[in-house]
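#lab-general

N.A. 3:47 PM
ok so I finally got the sequence cleaned up, no stray characters, all 260 residues accounted for. can someone with queue access submit it? mine expired

B.Y. 3:52 PM
send it over

N.A. 3:53 PM
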Amino acid sequence: MANSPNTRIATYNVNGLRSAISKGFIEWLSAAGPDMICLQELKSQEDQLDLELFRAIGYESYLFPATKKGYSGVGILSKRKPVRVVKGLGHDLFDFEGRSIRLDFEDFSVISTYFPSGTTGDVRQDVKMEFLDFYQKYIDQLKQEQPNLVICGDFNICHSAIDIHNPVSNAKSSGFLPEERAWMESFFNSGFIDTYRHLNTEPHNYTWWSFRAGSRDKNLGWRIDYVCISEQLNSKLKRSVILPDARHSDHCPVMVDLEL
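B.Y. 4:20 PM
back already:
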């Protein structure tokens, strides 16, 4: 996009970066050509990846893997050089799990965050709720220093009934619990825009599908992956799309164009 004034930013939970690469992720990324792409669930250490694959198509890799191998981890691939790279949130457990990385540019910052899942039981659900509380405080403080934020990631929460194919039967499912949805509402009310929903009000648009029972082909999904922007960037938002045809993961990418 060298001739465009827009900055194109994508987010993608790749559910294992090496697995995604084996399914054509590099070729897809080269063709899609975002200025940067925020990745979640790397499930890879840096020494397990050939970073030259990304350099060959114009991207530098900024990665923050989990300490535990084969688990979690986030990263940002960027064609633009940041002025600062911040790995982690300053919280022992969440940094051990490789939950967030931030690239600071001159007049905006881009964050890739992988929110915990609570689907394995009460202990992890408690961790998830602790993360939500901590993350809101982290963002509130960060916003004082850098008001122009682009927060990308797998939030592991559907905000509204329109964001899930079966809201009634999932009313008590982690990812669609009332307290999780209330947190999302509070997060947006704290000064952020859900870019996709801001520009698209149609139902049946999802970013994650279970591997079970042909869910993806039937489009029985959840919209849990977001690109959120500070309210003051609203006038800069030109486009936000979900790309369900990208099939390197059980998630698909979300991509935005911003005049940054």
